[in-house]
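Example S7 (structure tokens).
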């Protein structure tokens, strides 16, 4: 039940410059959230909103989970902060060990950050440091992918390939190139899971290598499933071919799993789901189920050892000049450990895998609805792409987002694509509610 204090609306919305938001329209018609529990938000005026997006792809165990809340509360009372520059606290090591056990192969070392953006920039720096440590200091070039999203740091937007995220901020990092994206509606529209067409697009990496020479390239970074651009599952065989090419040329392969790690595909990671072993993995979001900002980069043993164990100077010398004030923050570690326990005890990864076929059928029932030109899905990720109005890209989806909110469902949009990624605790009837709400909304759009 909402209290009088919770229901109150701020009398001045202007001071908060909102991120990735149409500020003028929002502040004229605000969508304010007062509380959350389970699968639902509650607005300041008492409306219940089904969270079909897990917040921002992150609230995987659902909102207000008591085990996680209590872990954060207890940790704040016991140890509110401890530096991890030359000092540490036990939970940082406990969490790193848990993650090493969770990720496949020899991804045995965790470097903690505070967000996906920080994880990406950290992974890029580790890749450069590794190449230097093994005597390959000429390898400084980084390869991303068109339409890729790797956060908002200068490293992330440089290797990223979303135009609006890049065009306002100058020349960005030098020495960056991009693979083509994998979506082609002529060949793979309405695919279920991984499309059959498109594996050959990985071969473009050979062209880029021939252009720049392998001796100049440090790493390739891709999202196993491109998420923020609107859910692009990888074509069958595509990731495997990227791994083959990078290994052949001594180039590191980085998987950006900020979205796909921690159950989104029904496994602990997309690396496990696809059976492809990257050299570095970036994570965040589901690590703490969004409760406390945290990220982690998982590094294979040989990468860690080349930088740390291979140092030729004295043991008192810092091996990697990188880190954040809040790396492995005690509250974040406590939240992450509790979140991992919820995943395990409730079998949420397995539950997501079991629900995926139902999710797929529900989403693809939207094929043939007005304006819908594609439906994509994998795991508990899904996208419904609509045609754009002439000269007004994104306007139709924006209206869909507002209408869905008014009908009691939160969805995400990118361009004219509706994206959904519910918490892993979602019930079948809630999937049906989300999909039927989208159906009613697209039928109302001009």
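Recovered sequence:
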């Amino acid at each position: 039940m909402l209290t009088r204090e919770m229901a109150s609306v701020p009398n001045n919305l202007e001071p908060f410059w909102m991120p990735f938001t149409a500020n003028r329209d929002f502040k004229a018609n605000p969508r304010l959230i007062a509380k959350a529990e389970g699968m639902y938000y509650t607005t300041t005026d008492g409306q219940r909103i089904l969270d079909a997006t897990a917040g921002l792809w992150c609230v995987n165990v659902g909102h207000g989970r008591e085990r996680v809340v209590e872990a954060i509360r207890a940790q704040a009372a016991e140890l509110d902060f401890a530096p991890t520059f030359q000092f540490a606290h036990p939970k940082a090591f406990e969490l790193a060990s848990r993650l090493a056990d969770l990720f496949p192969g020899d991804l045995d070392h965790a470097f903690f950050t505070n967000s996906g953006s920080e994880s990406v920039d950290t992974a890029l720096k580790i890749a450069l440091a590794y190449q230097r440590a093994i005597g390959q200091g000429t390898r400084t070039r980084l390869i991303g992918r068109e339409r890729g999203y790797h956060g908002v740091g200068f490293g992330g937007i440089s290797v990223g390939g979303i135009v609006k995220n890049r065009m306002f901020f100058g020349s960005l990092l030098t020495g960056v190139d991009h693979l083509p994206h994998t979506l082609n509606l002529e060949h793979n529209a309405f695919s279920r899971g991984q499309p059959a067409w498109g594996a050959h697009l990985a071969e473009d990496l050979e062209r880029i290598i021939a252009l720049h020479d392998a001796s100049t390239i440090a790493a390739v970074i891709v999202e196993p499933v491109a998420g923020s651009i609107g859910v692009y599952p990888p074509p069958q065989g595509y990731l495997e071919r990227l791994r083959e090419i990078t290994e052949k040329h001594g180039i590191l392969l980085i998987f950006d799993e900020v979205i796909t790690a921690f159950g989104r595909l029904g496994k602990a990671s997309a690396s496990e789901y696809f059976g492809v072993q990257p050299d570095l993995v970036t994570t965040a979001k589901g690590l703490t189920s969004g409760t406390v900002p945290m990220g982690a980069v998982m590094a294979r043993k040989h990468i860690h050892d080349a930088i740390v164990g291979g140092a030729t100077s004295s043991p008192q010398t810092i091996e990697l000049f990188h880190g954040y004030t809040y790396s492995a923050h005690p509250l974040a570690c406590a939240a992450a450990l509790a979140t991992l326990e919820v995943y395990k005890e409730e079998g949420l990864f397995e539950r997501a895998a079991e629900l995926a076929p139902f999710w797929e059928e529900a989403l693809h029932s939207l094929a043939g609805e007005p304006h819908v030109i594609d439906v994509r899905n994998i795991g508990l990720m899904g996208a419904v792409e609509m045609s754009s109005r002439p000269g007004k890209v994104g306007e139709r989806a924006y209206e869909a987002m507002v209408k869905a909110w008014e009908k009691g469902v939160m969805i995400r949009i990118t361009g004219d694509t509706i994206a959904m990624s519910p918490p892993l605790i979602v019930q079948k009837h809630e999937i049906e509610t989300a999909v039927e709400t989208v159906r009613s909304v697209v039928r109302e759009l001009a």
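Notes on this example. The longest strand covers residues 107-113.
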